[in-house]
Amino acid sequence: PPAPPPPIPIVTRPDPAPPPVPAVTLDPKRESDAAQQLALANDAFTAQRWADAKAALERLKASWSDTDVYRKGAASIGERLGQCDSRIRDTDREVGTRYLEALGHMENSRWDEARAVLEKLRLESRYTAEVTEPGVQRDLEKCARELKAEDAVAGLISNYKGGRWSLVIEGAAAIRRDYRGSDTLKKDGPA
Prior knowledge:
Blueprint: H1 28-46, H2 50-64, H3 68-107, H4 111-123, H5 133-161, H6 165-178, H7 183-188
């Protein structure tokens, strides 16, 4: 038989060296802007303004993720974003519960109690997707109108009991005109 062909020598070449990593040039303006954004986020977080803190952290992540400020704090930034989300959910639940409490007071014609809860929500600027500023304002206006209607009805009853008939007639006409459709008139009967 013929002789086997001679083995082909395998030449191995060393892998080429990876291309040099370009030196990172830090832009002092971007680093400063990122630091300011992080400070804003930290201030909001410390003040427990969770939505503001989350928005500032998300802006930092979206606009300055290439900075040293972001890279060095990335782990804590992610952790704080998670804490903000959790606190926002807790706040939303609390606001929803308080708003339902106010609605319950309104349903039972306890206008003063409803107004107190709604006023506190408004003063604290505590709103959610379901509990909106216009909705709270609308309910506050309804409470105020119903309280005025109750006062007008009480004045009418007082005038009736005192036999002040001209005031009863004037008061009844005013109540019909000013508080038509109010829950107070539905509850106390037609004026």
